[in-house]
Amino acid sequence: MAYGRPTMGGMNQQQMMKQARKLQEQMLAAQAKLGETEFSASTGGGAVKVSVTGDLRVKSLAIDPDAVDPEDIEMLEDMIIAAVNDAIESAEAGANQQMSALTGGLNIPGLF
Fold first, then answer.
1. What pTM did the predictor assign?
2. 34 domain residue, yes or no
3. CA-CA distances (angstroms) from residue 87 to 24, 39, 41, 47, 102?
4. How many domains does the chain have?
5. Cα–Cα distance measured from residue 31 to residue 33, given in angstroms and rounded to the nearest whole number
6. pLDDT by residue for the chain (112 residues), tens digit each?
């Protein structure tokens, strides 16, 4: 029978709280870094280029003037949507990779 503070796998509650605070600080730093990191995508052979930040904000959008055909606006709209979605997917993959590195591969719901 163990006396004193209850332990979990040899770690007391105070040590666990210290580890949790450290992880929280690391996650906040990672979130800040992601907000500054840009992820880019292009479609139509570079006709539409989009950059988003890791916090999923569109940073820039460039459209080649040759891609603008007044007779086919739908194609341009589709290229913009595809480029934005690709950039967002890249940003999400980057966020997941960074969080996985912090959590040692543990899937903790609600982190990102």
1. 0.68
2. yes
3. 27, 6, 5, 15, 23
4. 1
5. 5
6. 455 555 555 668 888 888 888 888 888 888 888 888 999 999 999 999 999 998 899 999 999 999 999 999 999 999 999 999 999 999 999 888 887 877 775 655 555 4
